[in-house]
Design brief:
Arc Repressor Mutant, subunit A, elongated, mainly alpha, about 160 residues, 3 domains, about 65% helix
Length: about 160
């Protein structure tokens, strides 16, 4: 829908949608999917929301890549692994071709993070019994670490 196709009420609604989107984005990064969902919940028309989101993307006010980078940084700082991050990005319909390269940048040491998360939760000493080892491995798996990250956390 373009402005030429818009009805008078639609033109009145566009500034409201822009304002709502700007307010949402001023607090933190939002994915396109998340922004669409929140604006739809406010009762705005889908076609007008899509138009505003496209405008915001063109002006670089909304970026799924920036959202992904922000999510990775936040999840890393909370002790979440790359599997958790990948699943979260897919839940937000983010299909960036370079998700893998963003997650596995040199600045993120997933092996070290898995070790730190294990030690924070269970202490420095490695478990000696099978059941405790499995419990700790399940915990790390739940946090989103891969088996190679988990295994390395037990060989420090």
């Amino acid at each position: 829908m373009t402005l030429d196709d818009a009805q008078p009420n639609d033109i009145d609604e566009l500034p409201l949608i822009r304002n709502s989107a700007a307010r949402l984005l001023s607090g933190r990064e939002h994915s396109q999917f998340e922004l669409q969902r929140k604006l739809t919940q406010k009762g705005f028309q889908s076609a007008l929301i899509a138009q505003v989101i496209a405008e915001f993307q063109e002006a670089n006010l909304q970026s799924d890549r920036r959202y992904a980078e922000s999510l990775i940084r936040s999840a890393y700082n909370k002790g979440k692994g790359p599997t958790f991050i990948t699943q979260t990005l897919h839940q937000h319909d983010i299909e960036l071709s370079d998700i893998h390269s963003l997650i596995y940048k040199d600045e993120w040491d997933w092996y070290e993070l898995a070790r730190k998360v294990r030690e924070k939760r269970f202490g420095d000493a490695l478990p000696t019994d099978f059941h405790q080892t499995q419990k700790q491995k399940r915990f790390l798996q739940y946090r989103g670490f891969s088996s190679s990250h988990i295994n390395e956390a037990f060989h420090s």
